[in-house]
Design goal:
Layout lengths: L2 H21 L3 H24 L5 H14 L11 H6 L1 H20 L9 H20 L3 H22 L5
Length: about 170
Amino acid sequence: MSLANKITWLRIVLCPAVYYAGIVRARFLFLGLFVFAGATDVLDGFVARRFNEYSAWGSMLDTIADVLFYPSALMLYFFYPTKMTANAVLLGVMIVAWLVGMGIARERKTIEKPHPWLSKLASLSIFCFVVVSLLDGFVQEFLYAVIVINIAGAVNKAVAAQGGRT
């Protein structure tokens, strides 16, 4: 197994601990695990490119790890229940858009291809929002930006899967 895939597996293995830390409201444990697991998302791609370890399997594994890891951002509910509940409809729209984009990519058998740049920006926006929220407080306007970027990323992924430009 390649080093890049081992790093991706680490993110998958960390996911239950990330979710658990959120559910029990262990703010700094959640933050530490979230940052560490998020760093593996950057590191696995870097290692795959640097050491020529890119493979369709590795890309699919990375997508699986992303699908398991990034929803852990919803654990912010346990730290900001009122604010997250107030934004439930917008968060739901974002999630549905993401599911549709992933569904189209899966249907078109493009899900294992490298992620479009806007999808990477969407993931980065989620990551930064969680970190900033836990360190400095929940910023409503930041959440709006994250939602817009993620809906755009989902549309971009769907267009790319249809053979359009990204």
